[in-house]
Amino acid sequence: MRGVQETHGLSLSALRAQGLGRISPVVKMWCLRALALGLVLCSLCFVWRSYQGMGLFLNLGTDYALYLAQSAVMDSGASSQIYDLSAADGPYRKLLDRYNSDPSYQGWTADIIVGPVPYPPIFAWALRPFTWISPPVSFALWFCLNLCLALIIGWRLASHCGSLDKPTTILLFLGSYPVVLSFYVGQIQIMLAWCITEFYLAMRGGREFRAGMWLGCLLLKPHYGLLLGLLLLWKRRWSAVLGAGAAGSIILGASVLVSGVHGLRAYPAAFSGMAQFRGDDPAVMINWRSVILDLYPSIYGRNGTLLTLALAAATLFSLAWVWRGEWNPNAADFPVKVLLTLLGTLIASFHSHPYGAVLLAMPLVVVLSSGQFHKTAWWVVGIGAVVPTLILELGYSGSLTNSQFYAHLVLASQVLKVVMFAMFGYFYARVCGLSVVGPDSSRMMRGGWIRARAFIPGIGRAASRVLNP
């Protein structure tokens, strides 16, 4: 039996830790692989069905359409106007007029429908070649490039997953909700997840300057690297800070070269439309702002923003407590501390969509494979990875429509939000030495989900939209 266990990369002790010790390990392995493969195939079928029902760029490829519109402005020579929504609105409307087939778009009456792309100018310049080919082909190529990056991340995860089954780990990563949603909308989140993966591995390997370089690449979406950057400053990891500064300087310097000083100075204006408390659809976010709106739907403006900032500050101070003491990347609790920091980043950020959770992949796999945590952690993580994907992809009546898709998107994101806060609470309690395991852990877990349902009533409203469209 021991030989079989080693061959298939999953120890019997690990299986028993997950409550799966009664069935043959080999059978279990292939069942898990089949389920994970089915999740990936279901996601591919959903993408194709969505394309047939709604076409492109309204939902499928919606963020990528924003990238193309901004790059089209850059390609026209108006590099100083790439953050001007009125300049990008024309190219964006052309994409929807030609490639979207959902009739709901015809009812949009706003003067400007394009959204902001708050990335440094070098991003719009680098994407220019994608505007020179047919948009559907361009999106397919972008999809394939992201798939290659996701496979690289999956390979890195499999190389550090301990006794976990490697094919299952890769397939579950590809079929998880944050990854699927990132592919679906055409986000750059897979690229950022690769940066976090390499940052973590370089830090664990003692290569701090390289780790800082990878972290500096998050300047494309600076809010994701903010807490990690502050942590490095606090712990005086000057080599890593220097690496992050070098990478950031390269990005900013290249942005000046391609757009001029005026283009770079216009960059902060791209965030202005995202600073409104109710802006950019917080119903599908996984942060404090979304929770506040679930609990207090009538709150607006300044009060909501101040409450969000207060909760974000509390999250920051709670993470500072976790990181007190000596900096030691080789410590057994280092992976879970990094995981908590990334969870805190996603929860505390003012702008945090579900695909951001893909950043958790590497530290989460290392934490789960360490054998230090009870099966409660497996259940919570499994629910967060799989259930929202199934909610997004299944249960549609007839051809997909924009309204149906949005209802499923909200419900899936609400479930992930509950899981994110549950993960933060669970791992934080473990790091602080509080007991959350034992004979009563399953009962506590059930009670926790009951409390979570009361804590976030938005799930009930989202479910009613799906069941009664």
Number of E-type strands: 0
Number of separate structural domains: 1
| Gyration radius over CA | 22 Å
The amount of helix comes to 55-70%
Mean pLDDT: 88
H/E element order = HHHHHHHHHHHHHHHHHHHHH
> Largest sheet, described in full?
none
Low-confidence stretches: 1-10, 437-456
What general outline do the C-alpha atoms trace? globular
Amino- and carboxy-terminal Cα gap: 52 Å
Please state roughly what percent of the residues sit in beta strands, choosing from under 5%, 5-15%, 15-25%, 25-35%, 35-45% or over 45%. Answer: under 5%
Q: Provide a count of the helices.
A: 21
Backbone structural class:
mainly alpha
Question: What brief labels describe this structure?
Answer:
mainly alpha, about 475 residues, disordered N terminus
Write the topology of this structure:
Elements: H1 2-8, H2 12-17, H3 25-54, H4 62-75, H5 85-99, H6 121-126, H7 135-159, H8 166-175, H9 177-185, H10 189-204, H11 208-216, H12 226-234, H13 238-265, H14 288-295, H15 301-322, H16 334-348, H17 361-369, H18 375-393, H19 402-431, H20 441-455, H21 458-467
Helix pairs in contact: 3-8, 3-18, 4-5, 7-8, 7-10, 9-18, 10-11, 11-13, 14-15, 15-16, 16-17, 16-19, 18-19, 19-21
